[in-house]
Amino acid sequence: MPENKKVQPKKILISFIIILIGTNLINYFMFGYRPAKSQLDRLEPDPAYALDATKLQEEMALFGEVLELVSGYFFETVDPVVLIHGAIQGALEALDDPQTRFYDTRELQNFLTNTTGSFSGIGVRIIDVDDSVVIFETIENTPAERAGLYPGDRIRSAGGEDLTGQGVDRAVELLRGPKGTTVEVNVERPGAAEPLLITLERDDIQMATVSSRMLEPGLGYIEISNFDSHTGTSFSEQLRSLEGMELNKGLILDLRGNPGGLVDQAIQVAKELVPEGEITRLVDRNGAIQNIHYSTASLKPYPLVVLVNEGTASAAEIVAGALQDHEAALLVGTNTYGKATVQHLERLSGDNALQLTVAKYLTPSGRDLHKKGLEPDYLVELPAALKYYRYFLPGRLEKGNYGPYVELLQEMLAELGYAVAPNGYYDNVTAEALASFQKGAGLTANGLFDDLTWIQLREALDQAALTSDAQLQKAVDLIGQPALWAHLRR
């Protein structure tokens, strides 16, 4: 019997959020820059640390004994650095705070790349599927897009190294590199008889975090995917552009799936939209205020609606929470993630770093969102098919499989109008429905869910989402109610 898929649909999204989840960084340091004094020196250390210093020395000596014995007598050769880093990771895990973590040199480089939003490479977002590295998205105007790489392509090797079972981290190391250098990739394309051997010249990649458009004359839409070092400037430029096109009906700010990022960039965005007053305050473990961020902006002359969901987290919640508290916007969607802590990135010796949670932020009214999130003004759910399809990465499915992945596939087919009941069993009815979809998409109608079907199904649901986005439609409807906005402005 084929292997059954047992991952809950909600966990499909949650696990993806864990991969993407942003960090509210107070500050961070690039390679080559080392402050003369630790930024943590401005904080008061816990007095208990000094009281337990003698005991701490005893325990560190104990750890040294264990390290020496394992390094010298374990039945296999052991790298002491691996043991020490593992011990550090274990100590931080005991804090039960996923945002506090240790970065080795490679991990730190990847982290800083994500926060700056720029790197040199080929321009793809990749994922692990069935021990293969699969392109999830190509970034616009990059070597990958220009070379014709597509979502669903499996990168079998890069630079001559087989990537089977190697994982995304190793693939990233091989695909990134200095601008102007080249890398040869072996690509297995769904539906192609032979693999493709493509040589790409690496280039500087700038990941766009802000996109905007006019939904109709006078009604603007801006989406922020996360907050990196360019987000604030990009947002300001695109907001000005929309306002220059007579943005008189209203603005919809889409923060759905935004995992957060840099605090200063979220503050910069908030200063454009939040009317004069507090944006957020940072408090320490004792509740003492460490810092307060303010806005001096005027209330926008047009209505503002913010779209949120369970993927809206950290820095994105700062913006949404401030707007809600000031009654400057209405929130539409579902409850947000609830990540209200801020981190400091402290550089360590050996080009390592410690990301340490040092404070918590509150909304202007003093609300603590941690592990609670923001409750939208208008609760609007999306069908599971439209809610999770972008994170649906099951690999191959066929008759005989059962479980949540199959159920989600059935819900997606039903959303597209095919007669199938979501029961979690890949039965004849499911196979026939999928075969009908495949026929309509110009694929071989075999009723088997494979990579090529995944690509076509995702594209079909992308189109369905444009016309069936109940959250977006609710935002448009609210903006069209002048009496509602007049009440909020009194």
Largest sheet: 6 strands, mixed
Number of beta-strand segments: 20
Principal-axis shape: globular
Helicity range: 25-40%
Instruction: Count the DSSP helices.
Output: 16
Distance N terminus to C terminus? Answer: 65 Å
- Give the low-pLDDT segments: 1-21, 27-37
Radius of gyration: 25 Å
Content-based structural category:
alpha+beta
Mean pLDDT: 86
Strand content: 15-25%
Describe the fold and architecture.
This protein is an alpha+beta fold and 490 residues long. 36% of the residues lie in helices and 22% in strands. It has 16 helices and 20 strands. It has helices spanning 9-20, 47-51, 53-73, 80-93, 105-116, 143-146, 168-175, 231-243, 263-273, 315-325, 384-388, 404-415, 428-440, 451-468, 470-479, 482-488; strands at 24-25, 101-103, 118-121, 124-129, 132-138, 154-158, 161-162, 182-188, 196-201, 203-206, 210-216, 219-224, 250-254, 277-283, 289-295, 304-308, 330-333, 341-348, 352-362, 378-379. The strands form four sheets. Strands 1, 2, 14, 15, 18 and 19 form a six-stranded mixed β-sheet that branches. Strands 4, 5, 6, 7, 8 and 9 form a six-stranded antiparallel β-sheet that branches. It is globular, with a radius of gyration of 25 Å.
